[in-house]
Amino acid sequence: MSPVPEPEPTGSLELRVARQGGRHVIAAQRHQGALRLLRPVYLDSSGQQCVIVVNPGGGYVGGDRYRLTAEVGEDASALVTTQSATKVYRTAGRGVLQEQRFIVADGAVLEVVLDPLIAYQDADYLQRTSAVVAPTGRLVLTDIVTPGWAPDGSPYRWRSVLLRTSLTRPAGEPIATDTLRLVPDEDGVAEHGFLGRRTHLGTLLAVAPELDRDAVEEVHRLLADREARVDGLRAGVSPLSSPGLAVRVLGPATEPVHELLLDVHAVLRSRWGSQPRLNLRKY
C-alpha cells in the first residue's frame, strides 16, 4: 500500500542570510502559499537584517500547515519577526501545525522575536521548533502565549496549545529541550493557579558563548527587580547545559511580559555586542 503523501503546506518560507563584506544580506529566499517577506529593514547601525514575516490570510484555521526555515551563515546577523500577532481561530477537525527550523553558523547571530500567539476559543495549535547552533553561534528565541476572545468572556477557551523546542549542536549534541503544553480542560490552569489572573505566558531561550553563570545572575536580578515593581508578574531563569539560559514569565497582560522579555534580550545583546534594546516600531 502506497504511503499517504504529506499535504502541501498552507504557507512555507525559506531564507538564508549571509555576510558579504561589511553587510548582512539575504542570500537566498523562497516562499510558497500564505507566507511572505516584507522588504528587509535595518533597525540600527550594526547592519543586521531585520526580516518581517507576513501571513496575508490574517489568521490560522483548522488544518493549516506552516513551515519557516531560516539559516544564518558564518559571521552574519539576522532578526526575524512577524508583522502582527499570530491568531489561531476555531480549528474544527485537524489542528494547526507550525514548523520552524533555524540554523546558526559560527560567529553568527539569529534573533527570533515573534509577536504574541493568540489562541481563541476551540483553537488547537502545535508549534515544533528545532534549532542547530554552532559553538560560537548566538541564538535568541521568544514566544508569548495569550488567550483570545470567547463569547462567555473567560480567558482559557482554547483546546490545546503545545510548543516544542529542541536546540542542538551541529553534530547532534543536545543543548536543551523545552515543552510547553496548555490544555485548559485537562490542566485546570485557572482552578489550580498555574495561570489564574496571570493570563499571559512568555518564554525566552538563548544560546551564546557569553551566557555564563554571571549572565544568568544578571538576568535573575533583572527579573527579581521587575517582579517587585509590577503587580501580578512572576518570572524565573535557568542556565542551559551549554552556555545559555531559559526564561519563563507569567503576567497579567501582553505589555509587561513583552517589555520584560525585551529587557532580558537587551542584557544578552550587551554581552556580545553594542546593539541597543530592540525597538520594532510596529505600533
Task: Give the count of structural domains.
Answer: 1
* SSE pattern: EEEEEEEEEEEEEEHEHEEH
> Helix content range of the residues, please?
10-25%
Radius of gyration: 19 Å
Apparent shape: globular
Q: How many β-strands, per DSSP?
A: 17
Could you list the spans in which at least 5 consecutive residues all have pLDDT below 50? none
Q: How is the biggest beta sheet arranged?
A: 10 strands, mixed
Mean model confidence by pLDDT: 91
- Strand residues, percent: 35-45%
The assigned structural class equals mainly beta
Count of DSSP H/I helices: 3
Q: Termini separation (Å)?
A: 53 Å
Can I get a quick summary?
The chain has 283 residues and is mostly beta strands.
Describe this structure in words.
The protein has 283 residues and is mainly beta. It has helices at 184-187, 213-229, 254-272, and strands at 11-20, 23-33, 36-37, 49-54, 65-72, 77-82, 86-88, 96-104, 109-113, 117-119, 124-133, 138-147, 160-168, 174-182, 200-207, 234-239, 244-251. It has one domain (12-272). Strands 3, 4, 6, 7, 9, 10, 12, 15, 16 and 17 form a ten-stranded mixed sheet that branches. α2 runs antiparallel to α3. The longest helix is centred in the last third of the chain and has 19 residues, at 254-272. The chain starts with 10 loop residues before the first strand and ends in an 11-residue tail after the last helix. UreD, UreF and UreG form a complex that acts as a GTP-hydrolysis-dependent molecular chaperone, activating the urease apoprotein by helping to assemble the nickel containing metallocenter of UreC. The UreE protein probably delivers the nickel. Keywords: Chaperone, Cytoplasm, Nickel insertion.
